[in-house]
Amino acid sequence: MQRISGIADMRARVVDWQRAGLRVGFVPTMGNLHGGHLALVDKARALSDRVVVSIFVNPAQFGPNEDYATYPRTGEADCAALDASGVDCVFLPAVDAMYPDGAGPRTRVEVPELNGMLCDVSRPGFFNGVATVVAKLLNIVTPDLAVFGLKDYQQLLVVQRLVRDLNLPVDIIGGPIAREPDGLAMSSRNVYLTADERERAPALYRALCHVASRLERGEPDWPLLVAEGLDRLREAGMQPDYLEIRRADDLAEALTSDHELVIPGAAYLGRARLIDNVRVSLPTPGQRD
Ligand code: AMP
Fold this sequence. Notes:
By secondary structure, the protein is of the alpha/beta class. It has helices at about 5-20, 35-45, 75-85, 95-100, 120, 125-140, 155-165, 195-200, 205-215, 220-235, and strands spanning about 1-5, 25-30, 50-55, 90, 145-150, 170-175, 240-245, 245, 260-270, 270-280.
């Protein structure tokens, strides 16, 4: 596995492959890799001839009181895991290379219709930071396809939208959520959980599944379902951020006439902020038995 940190070198590597007719898949990450990242790598490998993974802890997506300085950086272990997964190239750009003019005002990418809701409310500026760095990485790596996790559902929609709006020639693929055996979605930040918090953490997924199964069984009182879900989070000792029933394709507030839904949830537990979601397809009236 090749390690590249220079932007020009990264671009040249991929251009060479593409000139040889090879299809290049890309998985952007912030490192501290777990099974969720590696599942995205597997998906990229299945769909392409060469796979590039980037590891870049992007300062532009962290708020002033967030964990940029302490975000777990485990470069050597990450590279070993990527090598073992058959990745062809890891891109490890320095912060100065990605942001040579520092943190001051600069061009940024914003997807307004997905801001002002869900994660953007408690993490203002987060998605602008993500959208900007993803646009930069896609311009540097120029992959044929890029794989993003469905775990960060709002982020996946932001990326799909920016690619469409900016006419970037890349296919954006969603990869399924990888979970621990007890249902907790894998996350680099799960290391922040104490042993006691770790035991309680699967309550987020269970609360989402509870709401999903009541929806599927036809419960008409959606505010009641949301209240039940939030109660379950509080009972597990979490401080809920949000738990909502949204339309799957654009995250607009869902109407009872909608069928393709997603239930996104976020909650604070100790030092960690957990996020997760569950998709629900309600039968159309003709399909109901
Ligand atoms: P991160 O390193 O947290 O920025 O995540 C990099 C990519 O991995 C993003 O596309 C995430 O959505 C994805 N990802 C993170 N956790 C999971 C998970 N448990 N299952 C699937 N994808 C994930």
